[in-house]
UniProtKB/TrEMBL annotation, chain B:
Residues 23-120 form the Cytochrome oxidase subunit II transmembrane region profile domain. The lineage of its organism: Bacteria, Bacillati, Bacillota, Bacilli, Bacillales. It is found in: Cell membrane; Membrane. It comes from the Bacteria. This is Cytochrome c oxidase subunit 2. The keyword Chloroplast does not apply. The keyword Glycoprotein does not apply. CDD domains: CuRO_CcO_Caa3_II. It comes from Brevibacillus brevis. It catalyses: 4 Fe(II)-[cytochrome c] + O2 + 8 H(+)(in) = 4 Fe(III)-[cytochrome c] + 2 H2O + 4 H(+)(out). Its EC number is 7.1.1.9.
């Protein structure tokens, strides 16, 4: 094949996906990998709830229980919801801004494979001598060699590799959104999902280096006898907490902001109204992102920072309620006066509002330090963050998946199964987590593998476990729905929901070059503007011409595989393996640097054919 | 959405509320039943913040329910709804009101915050040094010259100033009914004051994941009348000043021999023995075995036969005792009392 090939390289099946640099296929990879990890994390959650169904039962031992809670938290945060967010960002953001691609397609693929191999490395710990058991926060000193097993090494290395992937993914989206917007797509015309993805990417840029620094220090403590966190040798146990939460708190917003974006899109589309208070929504999103960096110590009120630090961090935390409140009321007012339809996507979006409001309210309650001394590390906190992360983020992701599934896969998800999915998941969720507020106040600490009889904790725990079954049924129904949709022969139309933003202007699923002609954007809700002007589609901003595409590459896979191998070398102190792995990665980097690969062009004639077919 | 689905949701929430609120937990444990000024101040803040938040929730839910019922798409509905850009007055309103609500919460937050962080000198408060271990609690009264473990003994109605640390990993010291909570950091000291206004037994917990038996790291707080507390201190001091009590029966004497040979290396009794494990001077007076099980000879025997079974990951080795040795040890340990036998 010549340097300027005029045809797409012929690749199919697995090989296609292993080498793809197409953001839409990477989105599908993220969705599949994230979905599998979500099921693993869900299974862990179910085992946790079964163990706590009755007092003093022995289903899994104490040690296994600690492994389950650690892996449940780590998996859900890093390996399940983050990748599914990335899946939606990859699938939708370039379309929403009218771009043909992301800024760095190769880097985008690399980001996925790093996340994937990091996640696999972490999960193999189950079979290689025990999973990490020091909690998803891995507080030192418990996470040091003296007190925990090899599992924490898997945590330290798996998360470093996966974190690298997330960081470069975030940078890619920052550059894409800044540089790749179609003519006329000013910042203040960007859809809310793109806005929230933009701010999330900014948070990733600043938050992930903090966890990386923490993980490197912990790695030195564990593998090379460093003493950063070992109090017996003059180390400080509180420094880890600061590093972890300087990352960990913004992480909460990295997770929830895209969900806010999804809700804004879904609520406005299904109310047939533009988003109420768009500019205040943008402002609120940015403000939440900013404040997210200022409040990390509210996870540490009981660490002993003193009255002044606690009070300041408490008051700063309360402030976040203001922009969040603005968002809630803007959504309500978006629906006000609309024509609200309730397909499953909107059911999840509408179910999100009261649920997330409860999570936000308990968040403000937690921001009162003297009261937090009672809530902290109790089931009240467990209830709070599940209301935010499941009730907010997972509801948001379900809404987004039902909404954008036709765009991603060209098939509609079944609405009847979807509604069952919503109601079982919604009721199961509240049954699971609502009683946990009370369990915490009644004296149940979090992360306990059992509780004693005669403490009045039995009924709440029992109800909570029953609810977990409801959420399980909801998740299974979603999987069934995916299979049903895949088997159905009916193709989704380009614009099934009467959409407002650019992604609905092109076929479902979009051709590999997205837009035949880059669209000209003439206002907020670009497609809606054209519809109201009586136009059939977007006005093009350029004549039809050859489209330049990047070449697929196997290097991102190999590069990540190298780090994966090196990771095992570090865990087992086998430095030959470390060198082999790092050489593979560096060799790939070298190849990438010296090999000239100018990509290929899709020719004009070919283009029209494809456009018609798709 | 159909109206009935709305009711369904609210019905399930209210059913839950009714179910859970029927009990507010056990008096000895629940943070909802404060038994001292610290827990009471914290409970007041909880009530204030949850009242404000429930108010906000009602407003949100009222608008939410109205909107969903009033503006759902009806069959045959034509036309396009008005595309409203926003409303400055409204947006300012729902920015300012939360600010005001937050200020209402902020004022008691600041005052209570500083009140709870006061430190009381020994003239005003009983001083207790707490050291957390995997998976037990060590309590020392430096001014009274007394040390105990697992069962914390306090006088009623008097401030107690705790100084807390940990010997191995991070734990957290929590007595919900008296007030919460502070971490015990290895290599550092934290301070906390509490006060119990009623005599009785309260339950304490470790709240920070600290290893396999984190869930079982409970302790008891025995709050006594001042006079009873003084007697207890005097008795403890009396016993600690001299050699361990002589055994009262032949079986107990045999137990004492085994104890002196195998246990004193780690456990202190009276003025003798090590500090690796819990101080056992007043073992027979304790409310629980290992902090969790009922204080019965069977449970003590079960612990002695296999300490890892009751509390996995704890540091006590299995001594491989024979049945009669266990019996003798139990007999002896049940004599380790500083007060009238229960």
């Amino acid at each position: 094949m010549s340097a300027h090939a005029s045809h797409a390289p012929n690749r199919s099946g697995l090989w296609d996906y292993l080498t793809t640099v197409d953001h839409k296929k990477i989105a599908i990879l993220y969705l599949i990998a994230g979905g599998i990890f979500f099921l693993a994390g869900g299974l862990e959650a179910l085992l946790i709830r079964l163990q706590l169904m009755y007092p003093e039962i022995e289903l899994v031992g104490a040690k296994t229980f600690n492994e389950l809670i650690t892996m449940h938290g780590t998996t859900m945060i890093f390996l399940a919801v983050m990748p599914i967010i990335f899946a939606l960002m990859n699938a939708i953001v370039p379309l929403q801004i009218g771009a043909r691609d992301v800024a760095f397609p190769f880097v985008n693929a690399l980001g996925f494979w790093l996340f994937f191999f990091g996640g696999v490395l972490l999960n193999t710990s189950w079979f290689l001598g025990g999973a990490p058991d020091a909690g998803w926060t891995s507080y030192t000193t418990l996470a040091l060699n003296q007190y925990s097993g090899i599992g924490v090494d898997f945590y330290v290395l798996g998360l470093q590799i996966a974190g690298l992937g997330t960081l470069i993914g975030g940078i890619n989206f920052l550059v894409t959104i800044i540089n790749m917007r179609a003519p006329g797509m000013t910042f203040m015309r960007m859809p809310m999902f793109t806005w929230s993805s933009f701010i999330t990417s900014g948070l990733i840029l600043f938050a992930f280096p903090a966890i990386t620094v923490g993980l490197v220090l912990l790695m030195f403590d564990r593998l090379f006898g460093g003493n950063f966190f070992n109090p017996d040798a003059g180390g400080n146990v509180v420094i880890w907490e600061h590093l972890f939460w300087i990352f960990g708190h913004p992480e909460v917003y990295i997770l929830i902001l895209p969900a806010f974006g999804i809700i804004s899109e879904v609520v406005s589309t299904f109310s047939r109204k533009r988003l109420f208070g768009y500019s205040s929504m943008v402002f609120a999103t940015a403000l939440i992102g900013f404040l997210g960096f200022m409040v990390w110590a509210h996870h540490m009120f009981t660490t002993g920072l003193g009255a002044i630090a606690n009070t300041l961090f408490g008051l700063a935390t309360m402030l976040i309620a203001v922009p969040t409140g603005i968002k809630i009321f803007n959504w309500l007012l978006t629906m006000w006066g609309g024509q609200i339809r309730f397909p499953t996507a909107n059911l999840f979006a509408v179910g999100f509002i009261p649920t997330f409001t409860i999570g936000g309210m308990t968040g403000v309650m937690l921001a009162v330090p003297p009261a937090d001394y009672q809530y902290h590390d109790s089931y009240f906190v467990v209830a709070h963050f599940h209301y935010v992360i499941v009730g907010g983020l997972v509801f948001g992701l379900f809404a987004g998946l039902y909404y954008w599934w036709p765009k991603m896969f060209g098939k509609m998800l079944n609405e009847t199964i979807g509604k069952w999915n919503f109601w079982t998941f919604f009721i199961g969720f509240h049954l699971t987590f609502f009683p946990q507020h009370f369990l915490g106040l009644m004296g149940m600490p979090r992360r306990v593998f059992t509780y004693l009889k005669d403490q009045n904790l039995d009924m709440g725990n029992f109800i909570s476990t029953i609810g977990a079954f409801g959420m399980t049924i909801g998740t299974i129904l979603f999987l069934i729905n995916v299979v049903v949709a895949a088997k159905s022969s009916k193709r989704a139309p380009a614009d099934p929901w009467d959409g407002r933003s650019l992604e609905w202007a092109i076929p479902s699923p979009p051709p590999e070059y997205n837009f035949v002609q880059t669209p000209l954007v003439r206002g907020l809700d670009a497609l809606w503007v054209e519809k109201m002007a009586g136009n059939k589609g977007m006005t093009p901003a350029e004549p039809i011409g050859d489209i330049h595409m990047p070449s697929p590459s196997f290097l991102p896979f190999l590069m990540s595989l190298g780090l994966f191998v090196a990771g095992y070398g570090f865990i087992y102190h086998n430095y030959v393996v470390v060198v082999i792995g790092l050489l593979l990665t560096l060799g790939c980097m070298f190849t990438r640097s010296v090999k000239d690969d100018p990509g290929y062009h899709i020719h004009e004639d070919e283009l029209e054919e494809k456009g018609v077919k798709a | 959405m159909k109206g009935w689905q709305q009711y369904w949701r609210q019905f399930s929430l209210f059913a839950l509320l009714a179910l859970v609120l029927t009990g507010c937990g056990k008096d000895e444990l629940s943070a909802l039943k404060p038994s001292g000024p610290v827990a009471a101040m914290q409970f007041d803040l909880m009530k204030l913040s949850s009242a404000i938040m429930i108010g906000v929730f009602i407003v949100v839910m009222a608008i939410f329910t109205y909107v969903l019922i009033r503006y759902r798409k009806r069959p045959g509905q034509q036309g396009i709804p008005k595309q409203v850009e926003g409303n400055h007055a409204l947006e300012i309103l729902w920015t300012v009101i939360p600010f005001l609500l937050l200020i209402i919460m902020a004022i008691p937050t600041v005052t209570t915050g500083f009140a709870l962080h006061k430190e009381y000198p020994k003239e005003e408060a009983v001083q207790v040094k707490v050291t957390a271990h995997q998976f037990w609690w060590e309590f020392e009264y430096p001014d009274l010259g007394v040390a105990t473990a697992q069962d914390l003994v306090l006088p009623v109605g008097k401030k107690v100033q705790f100084v807390l640390s940990a010997s191995d990993v991070k734990h957290a010291f929590w007595i919900p009914a008296l007030g919460g909570k502070i971490d015990t950091n290895p290599g550092q000291e934290n301070k906390l004051w509490l006060q119990a206004d009623k005599t009785g037994i309260y339950y304490g917990k470790c709240a920070e994941l600290c290893g396999a038996s984190h869930a079982l790291m409970d302790f008891k707080v025995e709050v006594k009348e001042q006079a009873d507390f003084d007697t207890w201190v005097a008795n403890m001091k009396g016993v600690q000043a001299k050699e361990p009590v002589t055994a009262t029966s032949p079986l107990a004497a045999e137990g004492q021999q085994i104890f002196d040979k195998s246990c004193l290396g780690c456990h202190a009794v009276a003025g003798k023995g090590g500090k690796m494990g819990p101080n056992l001077t007043n073992f027979a007076d304790r409310e629980r075995v290992a902090g969790i099980k009922a204080h019965t000879p069977q449970n003590i025997a079960e612990w002695l036969k296999d300490p890892q079974k009751m509390k996995p990951g704890n540091k006590m080795p299995n001594l491989n005792l024979e049945e009669n040795q266990v019996k003798a040890l139990v007999e002896y340990m049940e004599t380790l009392s500083v007060s009238e036998k229960k």
